[in-house]
């Protein structure tokens, strides 16, 4: 799939993006699945719609936070499973325009992120708990799954699919160029042509030929001749796939691991299970070392602010990225095996050694003897010397290796010390 490779060119360079889950569920503040988990009826969920007044919504602050973190693109929930639309859709009243927010929040998001030079993506939920024609019967994810009268109501699913198509058309027509369409998600027999996915993707591509689409409309992106709707990139959720993603011919499939900062996507007031900046940096490095991206989530609160702890983590990751971004952007897997002390990323003849584990003594680079033209500590550009330790010739397995001595007992950067190696 050459087209897929071309379309994802910028995406595979960018490597790091911001996912934003924001909607009415920020008010109950128990995660974006609250309506389903607590089996809330439309009526029980309704007060949040009447109350939605994000007086601290400032997408420019979000965009600055993303930029400062070193993220190069963003994806925002235009509609999540609860069906609430942050955009001014012609086809529903269940939208931000009709809440006390009184305006199209997507428009401001697009403008703000564009102005910061970031690429812009739209998340759109295929699942819809609010639409009258979305099926609940036998559906393990629907809030009304146990309400027999509700489940047995007569629905016309095609009307929902028309609605889905019409809204996607609005999203890619009314906001200028959009870089990513991120659908979520197919399950059981609700997949592929159930969404009239070929027609939908053809519509999207006719209006936005360069847009890239995730793989959650269905199909199998790993086939050598995937369906039209199988997507441009694979989207592992809450995991960095151990071996990356390759297709049935062993060729790389572009991919992006979406990862939360704590344990929820939408704002959760009592979820303090935050990852450390070090974990985030190392997970990002791991993604890149396996030819993937990381889409790191924030869940702004009901007033529109990114939680303070998330902001702190992002800015700390950004500090690292500012000095070490060269080892992330445009980089991918190295053909060298994973080293004992950390990971490699590579971009042409620049090999980046991400040293996670100092050990004692010099750092060992298997297979690189005589091949290192230059070694620098990436963070400050300082020279590092390749040297052979005393009696190294007697150690098994070291004939083809090179050694670099780092001064000091501790690593210069506890999150990840990067050595930039120019190799032959
Ligand atoms: O938008 C985010 C999630 O809301 C959505 N995709 C990301 C990007 C998503 N998360 N998990 N899933 C989809 C898979 C479904 C998990 C479930 Fe459950 C298990 C649904 C019901 C049982 C997790 C646990 C959610 C509710 C309880």
Automatic annotation (TrEMBL):
User: Which keywords label this protein?
Assistant: Glycosidase, Hydrolase, Signal
Which InterPro entries does this entry report, sorted A to Z?
A: FUC_metazoa-typ (IPR016286), GH (IPR017853), Glyco_hydro_29 (IPR000933), Glyco_hydro_29_N (IPR057739), Glyco_hydro_b (IPR013780)
List, alphabetically, the PANTHER family matched: ALPHA-L-FUCOSIDASE, ALPHA-L-FUCOSIDASE-RELATED
SUPFAM superfamilies according to UniProt:
(Trans)glycosidases (SSF51445)
Protein name per Swiss-Prot or TrEMBL: alpha-L-fucosidase
> Which family does the similarity line name?
Belongs to the glycosyl hydrolase 29 family.
Functional summary from the UniProt entry: Alpha-L-fucosidase is responsible for hydrolyzing the alpha-1,6-linked fucose joined to the reducing-end N-acetylglucosamine of the carbohydrate moieties of glycoproteins.
Start and end of every Glycoside hydrolase family 29 N-terminal domain? 8-326
Biological source species: Paenibacillus allorhizoplanae
Q: EC number(s) of the enzyme?
A: 3.2.1.51
């Amino acid at each position: 799939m050459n087209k897929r490779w071309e379309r994802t060119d910028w995406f595979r360079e960018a490597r790091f993006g911001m996912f934003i889950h924001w909607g009415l569920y920020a008010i109950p503040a128990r995660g974006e699945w609250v309506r389903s988990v607590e089996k809330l009826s439309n009526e029980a969920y309704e007060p949040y719609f009447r109350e939605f007044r994000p007086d601290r919504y400032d997408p420019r602050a979000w965009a600055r936070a993303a930029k400062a973190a070193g993220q190069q693109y963003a994806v925002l929930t235009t509609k999540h499973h609860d069906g609430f639309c942050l955009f001014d859709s012609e086809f529903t009243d269940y939208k931000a325009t009709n809440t006390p927010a009184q305006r199209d929040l997507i428009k401001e998001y697009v403008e703000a992120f564009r102005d910061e030079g970031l690429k812009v993506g739209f998340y759109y939920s295929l699942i819809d708990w609010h639409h009258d024609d979305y099926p609940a019967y036998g559906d393990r994810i629907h809030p009304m799954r146990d309400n027999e009268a509700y489940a047995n109501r007569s629905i016309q699913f095609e009307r929902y699919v028309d609605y889905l198509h019409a809204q996607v058309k609005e999203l890619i027509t009314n906001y200028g160029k959009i870089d990513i369409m991120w659908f979520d998600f197919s399950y059981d027999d609700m997949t592929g042509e159930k969404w009239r996915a070929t027609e939908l993707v053809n519509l999207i591509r006719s209006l936005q030929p360069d847009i890239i689409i995730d793989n959650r409309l269905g199909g199998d992106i790993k086939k050598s001749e995937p369906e039209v709707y199988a997507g441009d990139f694979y989207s592992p959720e809450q995991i960095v796939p151990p071996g990356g993603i390759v297709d049935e011919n062993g060729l790389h499939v572009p991919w992006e691991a979406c990862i939360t900062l704590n344990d929820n996507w939408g704002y959760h007031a009592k979820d303090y299970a935050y990852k450390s900046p070090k974990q985030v940096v190392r997970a990002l490095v791991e993604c890149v070392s396996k030819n993937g991206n990381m889409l790191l989530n924030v869940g702004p609160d009901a007033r529109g602010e990114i939680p303070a702890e998330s902001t702190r983590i992002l800015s700390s990751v950004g500090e690292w990225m500012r000095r070490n971004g060269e080892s992330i952007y445009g980089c991918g897997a190295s053909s060298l095996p994973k080293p004992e002390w950390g990971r490699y990323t590579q971009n042409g003849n620049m090999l980046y050694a991400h040293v996670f584990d100092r050990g004692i003594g010099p750092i060992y680079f298997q297979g690189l003897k005589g091949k290192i033209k230059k070694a620098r500590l990436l963070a400050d550009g300082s020279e590092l010397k390749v040297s052979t330790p005393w009696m190294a010739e007697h150690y098994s397995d070291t004939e083809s290796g090179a050694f670099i001595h780092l001064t000091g007992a501790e690593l210069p950067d506890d999150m990840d010390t990067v050595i930039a190696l120019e190799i032959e």
